[in-house]
Specification:
Helix content: 10-25%
Pfam families: DUF6729
Shape: elongated
Number of domains: 1
Largest sheet: 6 strands, mixed
Number of helices: 3
Protein name: DUF6729 domain-containing protein
Length: 111
């Protein structure tokens, strides 16, 4: 089983500045969690629409909304992939509840 890197960390600002930074943004960079279950597990995911006859979901790019998540020790951003059914043309963000219900408990626990 392939385990891609799901966490991405921005470059950290230097601890000592020789000149003021051009923007305060360098102090507010957060880690990014990239949730991509189709690419992570490489198993077929089926459309949940009853009339769709379990067409296979395919990757359809990145979902445009990035969530800001509060963790125990700070904030992080979370992005996900779009999954599309070629049969009914419906798209699902990979973090949607419909997608969570497809898998086994083992896969659900990884999230």
């Amino acid at each position: 089983m392939r385990h891609p890197n799901l966490w991405w960390y921005p470059p950290q600002p230097p601890t000592i500045f020789t000149q003021p930074p051009s923007s305060p943004d360098v102090f507010f960079c957060r880690p990014l969690f990239l949730w991509m279950p189709l690419k992570m597990w490489l198993i077929p995911l089926a459309c949940v629409q009853p009339a769709c006859n379990n067409h296979r979901l395919t990757a359809a790019g990145l979902y445009r909304t990035v969530r800001k998540v509060l963790d125990i020790d700070g904030w992080y951003d979370m992005a996900t992939e779009y999954l599309e059914c070629k049969g009914c043309k419906k798209k699902y963000p990979a973090w949607s509840e419909e997608i969570w219900t497809w898998g086994t408990a083992d896969h659900s626990l990884q999230f």
